[in-house]
Design brief:
Blueprint lengths: L2 H7 L7 H8 L7 H13 L3 H21 L4 E5 L9 H8 L4 E6 L2 H10 L8 E5 L5 H5 L2 H6 L7 E5 L11 H10 L6 E7 L5 H8 L14 H5 L6 E2 L5 E2 L18 E7 L2
Helix pairs in contact: 2-3, 3-10, 4-5
Length: 267
Amino acid sequence: MSADDWHRRVDPSKPHPARMYDYYLGGKDNFEADREAAEQVLRVLPEVRLMALENRAFLGRAVRFLAAAGIRQFLDIGTGLPTQGSTSEVAHEVAPDARIVYVDNDPMVLVHARALLADRAPGDTVVIEGDVRDPDAILGHPDVRAVIDFDQPVALLLVAILHFVRDSEDPAGIVERFMRDMAPGSYLVLSHATHDFDPERSAEGSRPYANATAPFVTRSGAEIKRFFDGLEMVDPGLVQLPLWRPDGDPSPHLDAIWVYGGVARRG
């Protein structure tokens, strides 16, 4: 992607969830519109920063678990801007031969991710442009097919992405379509914001996303659990993020983490 193409396609006046998430994590790869929208959310839900950090930690624990279990292929959709503890960084610590495909629809993410990954061994980690709402385009992408062997187990990472998909866009069908191409022994890693703990504040905190490039759709635990239908949940099941196989004592701020996470295996 050329510099001219990047500037043409990135609209700094419209908030993007990936850049807002970067702001929550303390990053600097965001624009004024992203910061303003994020601050609107934070005024209602200051807990969002903690949720973002816990989501990143959950991703790391899940990837580490899967790499230790023998998974060597990771398809990470809705990657967001690369930060410390990214999928490739964690996976390669455990399994240097792991292969990773990052997918995002934000040109800014693509440019930054490719720059950061430029020193990796060629072919083991690639970044492509794609949208979770178009599984066929992602699964059929030549760069994906060059890195991922779908006859072997794959870890599909849908971490903090499906709450940007409307019900009318059939998020459950999207998950099912991706998993249909996965070999037995593949895994789904998923995290998703919920309104179970405070529906009114959750709704108010979601409003700033109405002007962003994607909405923010919280769902109940029961609705999120249905994304795992037909798969075998890994213990401890679908739980608040800090409770999923914590490295030590779970976060003392558990009541502030309005995000569920889980890992499941295709039998």
